[in-house]
């Protein structure tokens, strides 16, 4: 650590407390509201954080996945349960694909000299900056009219894989560079072919990098709205799309919406707590590596 | 790159093939398609072949379209304001927390939470907090006997509201990267400065910041590009309004395609946005190259001086 000054200043700790409050406060408020009835939300005399909690909102959202029938739900809307399943399918498959394919490409860019290497590397880097909004029109047109992939999982998974590849290739390169080449050479001497070297020697060593890349990829696929909205049909909608569809009405049921939001936020929050070290290493690698 | 493995000439291409195929069919081809589509009068119910070719008319329409020009400037303004604030706050925080404090790992985990949460959910959270009556801000203001703020219904406030939400979500990104860069600075330079009696401020201005510059520039570039990608938070918070006060380009593209069904015009806008981003990226890379060359020269001079 660069600076050795041990601060004993209470103002410093007050500042840190304020920062933590600012950063986690909105999330805590969302969590609190998800346990509030709508009556309590609109009642100014009920405190934002202190009230009688209820799990009704979660029961409403999850009614068709629950093993019992919640007493207060008159009509069970199966939308959310289905969307949750879709989000999982799309997120997991696209993450797996992106990792395998991206890792192989990153390895080729780091370890082999070949014609067109510079061009490939530069193109990949430039593709990282393409915003999803730019892809909206052409991907909708191509998927609908040429590939016939609209409203299918394949269509969404394909575009998420493509969107995440440049970033994954980029950050994995900086992990692969650090693999001692002697290990690879030794494996080659023992008669392993390049693919065996890659899968049996390199992949196990770069596991932390793979974890970081997996989290970033899954997070984007899990959180993405725009393209999922354009490409999914009734039965393939993901959670972000169903959330936006449910807030178009004038009157918002804040408790239910916040419960849905919490359910969407829980996986990324869990990842952050379990793997914050990998996330930070991944971010740093992704940014610093040129 | 340092070391390479000798292999069959075809091996690298085999490793690259899957990524190449996917990137070509799902990214490069769509971008080419978009450029072509921007010359068409095309609605979502038509196949692209049935759309009428209208040359540059979409672009001419855009240039004479007051609303498009406005949303172009809203985008520039938004990106400039959020990136400036986030850089200042993020680097400032990193300078402040770059010391041995217990629980740093936990702090960093808490600080990266905002950027992990879905933009849609971030939008919802802030929309709830900005709510005129039940929102936490106006409730607190009213409890203090003050008047509530028309967060999302006044054009000035709505821009501020959108900026605050983005700063909340993305300052941590700058903070983490700046902190990482700071903690990997060569200790010898800082110790030398301490021996020479440099103050905290002098160390920051004369040593830490200049040494971190290359990382800070890349960080700035990444954040700047991502600021042009922001869409969901604003869609949920204000849907571009009131008026056009928060209608950034990405959102306008979405609405032109979705609500107005003008795919050709949306493609033309997409093209403008992409050109803008490309110009920024190339410009920043060129600048970075110059900076790196200068840093290398300075390092060479410094080493010579040491002899």
From TrEMBL, chain A:
The annotated topology with respect to the bilayer is: Multi-pass membrane protein
The UniProt record lists the ABC transmembrane type-1 domain at 84-275
- Key word Cell membrane present: yes
UniProt xrefs under PROSITE patterns: ABC_TM1 (PS50928)
Short name of one Pfam family: BPD_transp_1
State the UniProt keywords alphabetically: Cell membrane, Membrane, Transmembrane, Transmembrane helix, Transport
Q: Which Gene3D superfamilies match?
A: MetI-like
| Protein name in UniProt | Carbohydrate ABC transporter permease
From TrEMBL, chain B:
Q: Which residues form the ABC transmembrane type-1 domain?
A: 72-286
- PROSITE patterns under this entry? ABC_TM1
Q: What is this protein called?
A: Sugar ABC transporter permease
Residues crossing the lipid bilayer are 12-36, 72-97, 109-129, 157-180, 205-225, 266-287
Protein's cellular compartments: Cell membrane
InterPro entries, from UniProt?
Answer: MetI-like (IPR000515), MetI-like_sf (IPR035906)
**Sequence similarity:** Belongs to the binding-protein-dependent transport system permease family.
Primary localization class, coarse: membrane
Q: Which Pfam families match?
A: BPD_transp_1 (PF00528)
Topological relation to the membrane, as annotated: Multi-pass membrane protein
Sorted UniProt keywords: Cell membrane, Membrane, Transmembrane, Transmembrane helix, Transport
Ribonucleoprotein as a keyword of this entry, yes or no, is no
């Amino acid at each position: 650590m660069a600076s050795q000054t041990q601060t004993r200043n209470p103002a410093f700790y007050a500042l840190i407390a304020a920062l933590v409050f600012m950063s986690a406060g909105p999330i805590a408020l969302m969590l609190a509201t998800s346990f509030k009835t709508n009556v309590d939300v609109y009642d100014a005399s009920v405190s934002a954080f202190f009230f009688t909690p209820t799990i009704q909102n979660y029961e409403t959202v999850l009614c068709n996945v629950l093993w019992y029938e919640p007493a207060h739900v008159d009509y069970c809307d199966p939308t959310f349960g289905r969307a949750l399943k879709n989000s999982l399918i799309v997120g997991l498959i696209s993450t797996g694909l992106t990792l395998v394919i991206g890792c192989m490409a990153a390895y080729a860019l780091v370890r082999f000299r070949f014609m067109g290497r510079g061009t490939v590397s530069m193109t990949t880097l430039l593709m990282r900056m393409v915003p999803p909004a730019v892809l909206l029109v052409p991907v909708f047109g191509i998927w609908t009219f040429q590939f016939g992939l609209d409203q299918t999982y394949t269509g969404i998974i394909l575009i998420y894989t493509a969107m995440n590849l440049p970033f994954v290739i980029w950050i994995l390169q900086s992990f692969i560079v650090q693999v001692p080449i002697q290990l690879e050479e030794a494996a080659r001497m023992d008669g392993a072919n390049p693919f065996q070297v890659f899968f049996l020697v390199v992949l196990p060593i770069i596991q932390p990098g793979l974890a970081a890349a997996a989290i970033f990829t899954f997070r984007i696929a899990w959180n993405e709205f725009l393209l999922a909205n354009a490409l999914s049909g009734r039965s393939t909608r993901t959670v972000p799309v169903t959330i936006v569809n449910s807030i178009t009405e004038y009157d918002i049921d804040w408790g239910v919406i916040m419960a849905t939001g919490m359910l969407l936020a829980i996986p990324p929050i869990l990842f952050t707590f379990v793997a914050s070290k990998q996330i930070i290493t991944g971010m740093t690698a992704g940014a610093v590596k040129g | 790159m340092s070391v390479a493995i000798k292999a069959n000439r075809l091996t690298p291409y085999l490793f690259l093939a899957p990524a190449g195929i996917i990137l070509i069919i799902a990214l490069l081809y769509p971008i080419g398609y978009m450029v072509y589509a921007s010359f068409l009068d095309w609605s979502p119910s038509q196949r692209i072949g049935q759309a009428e070719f209208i040359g540059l008319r979409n672009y001419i329409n855009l240039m004479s379209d007051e609303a498009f020009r406005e949303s172009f400037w809203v985008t520039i303004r938004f990106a400039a304001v959020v990136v400036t604030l986030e850089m200042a706050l993020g680097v400032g925080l990193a300078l402040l927390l770059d010391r041995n404090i217990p629980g740093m790992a936990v702090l960093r985990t808490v600080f990266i939470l905002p950027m992990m949460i879905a933009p849609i959910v971030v939008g919802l959270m802030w929309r709830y907090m900005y709510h005129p009556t039940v929102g936490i801000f106006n409730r607190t203001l009213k409890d203090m006997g003050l008047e509530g703020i028309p967060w999302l219904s006044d054009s000035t406030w709505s821009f501020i509201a959108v900026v605050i939400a983005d700063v909340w979500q993305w300052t941590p990104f700058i903070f983490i990267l700046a902190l990482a860069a700071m903690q990997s600075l060569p200790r010898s330079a800082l110790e030398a400065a301490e021996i020479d009696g440099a103050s905290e401020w002098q160390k920051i201005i004369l040593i830490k910041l200049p040494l971190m510059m290359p990382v800070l520039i890349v960080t700035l570039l990444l954040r700047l590009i991502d600021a042009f990608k922001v869409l969901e938070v604003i869609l949920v918070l204000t849907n571009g309004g009131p008026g056009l006060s928060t209608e950034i380009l990405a959102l306008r593209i979405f609405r032109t395609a979705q609500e107005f069904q003008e795919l050709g015009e949306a493609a033309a806008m997409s093209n403008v946005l992409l050109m803008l981003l490309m110009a920024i990226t190339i410009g920043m890379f060129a600048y970075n190259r110059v900076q790196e060359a200068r840093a290398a020269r300075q390092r060479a001079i410094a080493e010579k001086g040491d002899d």
